[in-house]
């Protein structure tokens, strides 16, 4: 993994080389170098290890996802703000199976840093509502469930939200 500043320097170098190739009348090389800058720009906004961790989580391979996330050293400096949010979101998803205290911290930090997709934000709030419900914090759980319901525009979490609301009535 390259540091985010190294990715920006790489973009500047590739653009400079591309322009130089244009001035030397090597138009094909210049176009190729300019197009090549798309890769480090994409990886600046979407960290490669976070993408690989998402792929592992999709296959329910929590150990593999943890291995990819552990390769990110100093996430506060190496990742942009949204990537830090997803870093904490993924850790929260993995830890939620075993340690609710840590999972709550990770999910709150992820929400604070921001997640770019409403669905991810809804899942984080739904998990926080479940943690609050398990600790008998009914008002907090209700608020989080309502926020998750608003964020769930495709209604993919509708069943889980209604089930949790029914469980909240029993508390």
Fold and architecture overview:
Helix content is 79%, strand content 0%. It has 171 residues and is mainly alpha-helical. Helix 5 runs antiparallel to helix 7, helix 7 (81-95) runs antiparallel to helix 8 (100-113) and helix 10 runs antiparallel to helix 11 (158-170). It is elongated, with a radius of gyration of 21 Å.
Rounded to the nearest angstrom, the radius of gyration is: 21 Å
State the helix count: 11
Low-confidence stretches: none
Strand segment count: 0
User: How does the major sheet shape up?
Assistant: none
Q: What portion of residues belong to β-strands? A: under 5%
Helix content: over 70%
| Amino- and carboxy-terminal Cα gap | 47 Å
- The helix/strand order is HHHHHHHHHHH
Question: Which shape, going by the Cα principal axes?
Answer: elongated
Assign the structural class, choosing from mainly alpha, mainly beta, alpha/beta, alpha+beta, or little secondary structure: mainly alpha
pLDDT averaged residue by residue: 89
Keywords:
single chain, 171 residues, elongated
SSE map:
Layout (H helix, E strand, L loop, with lengths): L3 H20 L3 H10 L1 H8 L2 H11 L3 H9 L4 H4 L2 H15 L4 H14 L4 H17 L3 H14 L6 H13 L1
Helix pairs in contact: 1-2, 1-3, 4-5, 5-7, 7-8, 8-9, 9-10, 9-11, 10-11
């Amino acid at each position: 993994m390259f540091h985010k500043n190294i990715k920006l320097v790489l973009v500047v170098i590739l653009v400079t080389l591309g322009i130089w190739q244009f001035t030397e009348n090597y138009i094909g090389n210049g176009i190729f170098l300019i197009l090549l800058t798309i890769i480090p720009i994409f990886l600046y906004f979407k960290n490669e290890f976070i993408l690989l961790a998402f792929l592992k989580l999709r296959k329910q391979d929590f150990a593999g996802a943890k291995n990819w996330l552990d390769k990110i050293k100093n996430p506060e400096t190496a990742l942009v703000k949204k990537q830090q949010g997803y870093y904490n979101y993924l850790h929260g998803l993995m830890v939620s199976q075993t340690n609710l205290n840590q999972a709550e911290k990770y999910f709150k930090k992820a929400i604070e840093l921001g997640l770019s997709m409403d669905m991810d934000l809804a899942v984080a709030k739904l998990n926080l509502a479940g943690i609050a419900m398990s600790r008998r914090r009914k008002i907090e759980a209700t608020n989080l469930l309502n926020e998750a319901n608003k964020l769930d525009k495709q209604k993919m979490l509708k069943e889980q939200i209604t089930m949790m609301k029914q469980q909240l009535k029993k508390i």
